[in-house]
Amino acid sequence: MSAPVVLVHGFGTSGQLWRPVAAALSGALTPDLPGFGAAAPQGRPGQTTGDLAAALAGQLGPRRDVTLVGHSMGGKVALLVAARWPHLVGRLILVAPSPPTPEPMSGEDRAALRAAHGDAHALRRQYTQITRQPLAPRDMDQLILDGQRASRDAWHAWPDVGSREDISAEVAALPMPVTVLFSEDDPAIPPDVIRREVLGRLPGAQARPVQGSGHLLPLEVPDQVIAALRAADRA
């Protein structure tokens, strides 16, 4: 990759989500968002997408024109960084992103998501349900570890606050190229939601659908994620 690459994890996970992808990219950064991974102590009650975006922008420091890649919750965060600090982002790649509009989750699903915090059995069940490819034991163990060490405040803030926010007006006119990589078989954020609430809100974004993966593309089909990053770099 010709530009610095920053890989932003999704809800409940950490920078370790990107391990198979980062291994193929020289110098890729995998920061942890406040409340998750090594940044678990930084989680706060009611933290917003804007709070997470400001923290990420701060972590980027003096860098400019990075290739910013966000998965799921991290996709919504990356969108807001690109809108508020456009000088930091040369290219934006969203991987199975949470939409800029309120994420369509039922009350039952939100409650189940909140209750999964710290519960190894619930976490394993959750990740089995949202994937379509078997995860390596090492990867499943890491997901469960991340779910157990995450800040409870940050964990609850996403289904209660961040996922409900509407930032679509802010991100409607991004100046940089945008690619949206998603799976036609994603049970967590289905392709119709991606087409309507992500691609439909980002004029000019390039759609890159794949098949056979669930929601955790960086772990399920890392080769396809790497291919998408390299294709975007050549464009």
TrEMBL record:
Entry annotated with the keyword Ribosomal protein: no
Q: Which Pfam families match?
A: Abhydrolase_6 (PF12697)
Q: Name one GO molecular function term.
A: hydrolase activity
Q: Which domain of life is it from?
A: Bacteria
Q: Which InterPro entries match?
A: AB_hydrolase_1 (IPR000073), AB_hydrolase_fold (IPR029058), Carboxylesterase_BioH (IPR050228)
Keywords for this protein: Hydrolase
Pinpoint the AB hydrolase-1 domain residues: 5-228
Q: Which PANTHER family match?
A: HYDROLASE ALPHA/BETA FOLD FAMILY, PEROXISOMAL MEMBRANE PROTEIN LPX1
Spell out the protein name for this chain: Hydrolase
Source species = Deinococcus arenae
